[in-house]
């Protein structure tokens, strides 16, 4: 896995023109489970509204997570379609439980932000390549990402660069 600084810089670059803030806040919260992380974020930023984004692959097995129903009650969920996972995600026990709170197709995620639980399925033409295939094709991508002066978009704290593991670029 690439260093946190490279992954965060890449995520920030990808979300530059979107109303999304890439953060590494879990590092400083010291939480272990998702439910604890979401609650800590809401305590720290009580005036902010959050939507938790996950891939369809995670929704397919979400019912196996610790306190998954409480997670859904803490924060609205937006699910990003992933090739090969949509059918399993929609047939999952978690999807069945969340069905009554599912937003209609075409509703904006912001409409779900009013309350939780809420589930929004985001549909677009996803990249059909796997993350593993992308990393295998360019194993040294992180060494080319500029992390100088990198700050967390939520906490505004500086993120220190770390060496890239796995040999020389």
Overview of the structural elements:
Mean pLDDT is 85; it is low at 164-169. The longest helix has 11 residues, at 4-14. Helix 3 (34-44) runs parallel beside helix 5. The chain is mostly helical and 169 residues long. It is globular and about 45 Å long. The chain has helices at 4-14, 26-29, 34-44, 56-61, 68-74, 86-90, 93-98, 109-112, 131-137, and strands spanning 52-55, 77-80, 119-122. It has a 3-stranded parallel beta sheet with strand order 1-2-3. The chain has one domain: Rossmann fold (3-Layer(aba) Sandwich). The protein has 9 helices and 3 strands.
What name does CATH use for the topology?
Answer: Rossmann fold
The side-by-side strand order for the widest beta sheet comes to 1-2-3
Largest sheet: 3 strands, parallel
Give me the Rg, rounded. 17 Å
Task: Tell me the β content.
Answer: 5-15%
Give the overall form: globular
Oligomer: single chain
Structural class of the secondary structure composition?
mainly alpha
CATH homologous superfamily (4th level) name:
HUPs
Which blocks of ≥5 consecutive residues have pLDDT under 50?
A: 164-169
Helix content: 25-40%
Distance between the termini: 14 Å
């Amino acid at each position: 896995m690439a260093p946190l600084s490279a992954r965060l810089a890449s995520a920030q670059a990808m979300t530059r023109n979107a109303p999304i803030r890439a953060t590494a806040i879990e590092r400083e919260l010291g939480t272990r489970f998702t439910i604890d992380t979401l609650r800590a974020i809401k305590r720290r930023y009580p005036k902010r509204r959050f939507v938790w984004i996950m891939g369809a692959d995670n929704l397919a097995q979400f019912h196996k997570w610790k306190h998954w129903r409480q997670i859904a009650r803490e924060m609205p969920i937006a699910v990003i379609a992933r090739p090969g996972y949509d059918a399993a995600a929609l047939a999952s026990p978690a999807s069945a439980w969340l069905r009554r709170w599912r937003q209609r197709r075409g509703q904006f995620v912001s409409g779900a932000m009013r309350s939780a639980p809420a589930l929004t399925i985001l549909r677009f033409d996803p990249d059909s390549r796997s993350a593993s295939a992308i990393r295998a094709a360019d194993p040294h991508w992180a060494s080319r990402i500029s992390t100088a002066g990198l700050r967390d978009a939520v906490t505004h704290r500086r993120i220190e660069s770390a060496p890239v593991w796995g040999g020389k670029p």
